[in-house]
Design the sequence.
């Protein structure tokens, strides 16, 4: 009888192992099928089955399954909340995470205590829910807490920045003692070494050592047999494998540095040597010569890990009968750890294989690596925070200071490009984005900003090429459709552009920029009533989307509702105070009534961005309207230097001269203006020239100087002929 | 022998300059008569192969009604004598007004064997576009005294004032244009 039971037990374990094996190899249908068989045998595998459903993109099945059981463990509830979020059931998700017994809302500490290991993720989810339901302050609190628990949650930091909070990257991207413990609390013994690698203060080093000692004591436990595989792996592999980088954003494989084995000999020696943590795989560890020299042996370390990814399984597994713990819980691991083993793939980041049982000296190298990672996160965090606060010059400066292997990655380049874009420095932005496209042609985020940059610069060929490539790549991304819409908008086929923007909205209703672009397009086709709700939608999704506030202001301006227009422009300015174009618009608006205010605004705009010709032009025209001709002329002369080909500049100069009575100069400038703009886009120039000699005749009749009058009249005839010719050419 | 009406350029080119915008989509179109399958959709489908064929007595009317008073700069029609022979319009009259009872003829033109786009400008001598609620295009006579008419495309254009704030004129260079708006 006992024998039978034992056999059954083994089958059960094998089954579970097989299911995780299938999950880790993305064979979801197998995993689901097997797990379903198991579920009807025992309830313990509830979480396992739900995970199978969730990973095979069927959150609704996982949801229904988990819903049916109310007394489930923390991780089941976590998964349930995740399913709810995925399905858009925000209130239910909130209920699961934060709702206590009898409807009492739990505090973050209670949530932390409840969810244990998954606390940081649950808090991040809760923060997301709060932000979506307009409770920004509570959301920010949750994100903060999640970051204190786990400083690697970049998305929480991003959300904090985007909500207008000013999180301090210095404080956040730091590993403290409690965090080490948290990680070690994760049930998997292999996780213990992780956090210790990332310590970077002396206090943390002490922690690190303490944990090393602890871990080494645990390490003696036979449970750690899987860990040995890692160490053996290292010895079997040479450093010849190329490093393939884990992070999606990095793309180019760096050449492996052949490190002297001596640095890592300890690894081979002991049975419990640390496998370098996966963040060694990040580009950090392919140091350029100028990089920190304190990273010896890192590359070999990462090559070890990469060997797990690189198709060389035989080598790895031959070293040890056990499979690498990166992927599979070996059958040697007792069942009690399995039921609460966290999803393996996500822990890859944290896998340090064995504990850092090695001596503190070894920890030093890992210490450096951890330092570098957190340092990079801090730098990126500072730059991103500056960008979200629209302190764009600072952001540009910070981005440019990043080390090259981090700088030349998709995310960084895209944010850098965006920083230039927000400053209205489109040519710079174009360069940065061009580099991004060259380095990583598959990077999709931020492409809509690139397309708008090209739209502003009127590069129709580049824009249509971009649209073509992106729509081929991924039809389900809103960015591709936004780019396509921008392309058609540049070709002035507004109906098609509107169609594409609507498609972008359909593909992803939470993409605010699609709504903004749709609104702008509708404004261009003069359908202001339809444009209003588009901008409002954009603002609803992202209250800090200043483009949408600007759009609203523009609509009210066109409808001549000046007060409303001003309110909205000010709101946009409040979010992005460094944008000279916005200031320009506010100024133009003022110019309608309050000229001093207008002048001040233009002055401020010019200070912010001396390259913006429009501010100067508007200032000059305001000065012209209040009859300060000399000042206007000065401005216009400066403007001539900046944009020598702009016909309107000469036109305005001509008008000023005309008012000043210097008709020959006026004529000269008018004719220059006509030359620069032969199609006569602006009828006003023609009118100005035609009207020119009516008052002239009177003026000169008044004066005694008939000769000059005659000469100007002949000049006038010449100009008229010139104008007539240009008419005919039309 | 009257000279043939020369074919005008494709109005799409005009559109690309950004100075005009097609606003037929903002109007309600109706016809005095049509053969089934050859109606308003075929007249407005951007396809020169399909056409409207009338099915009643002359004059054949195309009515374009806007929701609000709209400035109209040009009306373009595509008529091809080689393809349509006796169905090609030879005399077209343009009337504008507020509603059906209020129309006044403002332009009448004779087409002689047209071979493509015909641009009918509705601007007054000062260059200002015409503001109206309704345009009615009447085909009064066809070539070879045909009874029914074919019209392949009709487009209505309004002057576009893109991206300009207030009464400011539009800049011409990219350097200035790129600063003129936020998108």
Sequence:
């Amino acid at each position: 009888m006992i024998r039978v039971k034992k056999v059954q037990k083994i089958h059960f374990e094998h089954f579970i192992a097989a299911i995780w094996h299938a999950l880790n190899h993305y064979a979801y249908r197998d995993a689901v099928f097997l797990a379903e068989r198991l579920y009807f045998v025992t309830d313990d595998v509830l979480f396992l089955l739900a995970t199978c459903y969730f990973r095979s993109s069927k959150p609704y099945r996982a949801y229904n399954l988990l819903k049916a059981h109310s007394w489930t463990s923390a991780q089941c509830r976590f998964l349930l909340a995740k399913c709810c979020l995925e399905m858009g059931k925000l209130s239910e998700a909130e209920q699961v995470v934060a709702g206590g017994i009898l409807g009492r809302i739990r505090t973050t500490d209670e949530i932390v205590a409840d969810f244990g290991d998954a606390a940081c993720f649950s808090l991040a989810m809760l923060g997301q829910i709060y932000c979506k339901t307009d409770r920004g302050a509570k959301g920010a609190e949750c994100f903060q807490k999640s970051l204190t628990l786990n400083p690697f949650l970049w998305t929480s930091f991003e959300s904090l920045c985007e909500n207008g909070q000013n999180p301090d990257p210095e404080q956040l991207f730091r590993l403290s003692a409690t965090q080490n413990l948290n990680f070690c609390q994760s049930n998997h013994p292999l996780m213990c070494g992780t956090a210790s690698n990332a310590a970077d203060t002396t206090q943390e080093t002490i922690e690190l050592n303490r944990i090393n000692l602890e871990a080494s004591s645990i390490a003696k436990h036979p449970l750690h047999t899987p860990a040995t595989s890692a160490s053996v792996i290292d010895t079997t592999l040479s450093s010849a494998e190329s490093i393939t980088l884990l992070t999606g954003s990095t793309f180019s494989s760096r050449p492996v540095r052949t490190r002297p084995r001596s640095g890592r000999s300890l690894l081979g020696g002991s049975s419990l040597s640390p496998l370098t943590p996966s963040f060694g795989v990040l580009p950090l560890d392919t140091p350029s010569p100028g990089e920190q020299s304190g990273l010896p042996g890192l590359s070999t370390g990462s090559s070890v890990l990469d060997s797990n990814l690189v198709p060389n399984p035989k080598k790895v597994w031959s070293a040890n009968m056990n499979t690498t713990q990166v992927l599979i819980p070996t059958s040697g691991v007792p069942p009690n750890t399995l039921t609460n083993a966290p999803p393996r793939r996500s822990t890859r980041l944290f896998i340090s294989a064995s504990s850092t049982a090695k001596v503190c000296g070894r920890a030093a190298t890992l210490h450096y690596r951890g330092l570098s990672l957190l340092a990079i996160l801090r730098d990126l965090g500072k730059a991103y925070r500056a960008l979200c606060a629209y302190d764009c010059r600072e952001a540009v400066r910070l981005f440019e200071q990043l080390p090259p292997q981090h700088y030349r990655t998709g995310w960084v380049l895209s944010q850098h490009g965006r920083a230039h874009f927000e400053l209205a420095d489109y040519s710079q932005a174009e360069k940065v984005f061009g580099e991004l496209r060259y380095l990583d042609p598959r990077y999709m985020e931020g492409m809509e900003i690139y397309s708008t940059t090209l739209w502003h610069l009127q590069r129709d060929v580049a824009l249509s090429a971009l649209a073509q490539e992106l729509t081929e790549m991924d039809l389900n991304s809103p960015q591709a459709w936004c780019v396509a819409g921008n392309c058609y908008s540049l070709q002035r086929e507004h109906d098609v552009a509107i169609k594409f923007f609507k498609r972008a909205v359909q593909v992803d209703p939470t993409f605010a920029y699609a709504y903004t672009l749709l609104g702008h397009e509708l404004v261009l086709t003069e359908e202001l009533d339809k444009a209003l709700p588009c901008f409002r939608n954009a603002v609803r999704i992202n209250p800090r989307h200043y483009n949408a506030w600007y759009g609203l202001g523009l609509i009210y301006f066109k409808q001549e509702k000046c007060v409303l227009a001003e309110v909205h422009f000010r709101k946009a300015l409040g979010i992005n105070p460094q944008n000279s174009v916005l200031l320009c618009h506010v100024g133009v608006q003022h110019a309608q009534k309050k000229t001093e205010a207008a002048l001040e605004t233009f002055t401020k705009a010019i200070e912010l961005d001396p390259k913006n010709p429009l501010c100067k032009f508007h200032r000059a025209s305001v000065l012209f309207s209040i009859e300060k001709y000399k000042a206007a002329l000065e401005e216009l002369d400066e403007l001539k230097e900046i944009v020598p080909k702009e016909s309107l500049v000469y036109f305005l100069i001509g008008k000023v001269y005309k008012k000043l009575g210097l008709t020959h100069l006026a004529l000269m400038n008018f004719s220059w203006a006509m030359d620069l703009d032969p199609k006569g886009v602006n009828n006003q120039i023609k009118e100005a020239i035609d009207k020119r000699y009516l008052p002239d005749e009177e003026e000169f009749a008044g004066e005694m100087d008939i000769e000059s009058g005659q000469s100007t009249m002949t000049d006038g005839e010449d100009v008229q002929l010139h104008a007539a010719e240009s008419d005919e050419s039309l | 022998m009257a000279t043939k009406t020369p074919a005008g350029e494709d109005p799409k080119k005009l559109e690309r300059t950004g100075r005009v915008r097609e606003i037929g989509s903002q109007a309600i179109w109706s016809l005095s008569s049509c053969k089934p399958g050859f109606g308003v959709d075929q007249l407005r489908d951007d396809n020169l192969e399909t056409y409207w064929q009338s099915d009643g007595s002359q004059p054949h009317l195309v009515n374009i009604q806007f929701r609000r008073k709209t400035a109209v700069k040009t009306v373009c029609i595509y008529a091809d004598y080689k393809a349509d022979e006796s169905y090609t319009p030879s005399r077209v009259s343009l009337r504008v007004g507020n509603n059906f009872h209020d129309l006044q003829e403002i332009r009448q033109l004779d087409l002689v064997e047209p071979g493509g786009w015909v641009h009918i400008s509705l601007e007054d001598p000062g260059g200002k576009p015409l503001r109206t609620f309704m345009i009615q295009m009447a085909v009064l006579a066809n070539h070879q005294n045909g009874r029914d008419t074919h019209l392949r495309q009709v487009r209505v254009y309004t002057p576009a004032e893109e991206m300009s704030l207030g009464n400011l004129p539009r800049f011409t260079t990219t350097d200035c244009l790129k600063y003129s708006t936020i998108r």
Remarks:
- The mean pLDDT of chain B is 86.
- The first helix of chain B runs from residue 11 to 17.
- The radius of gyration of chain B is 18 Å.
- Chain B touches chain A at residues 15-19, 21, 25-26, 127, 162-163, 165-166, 168-183 (CB under 8 Å).
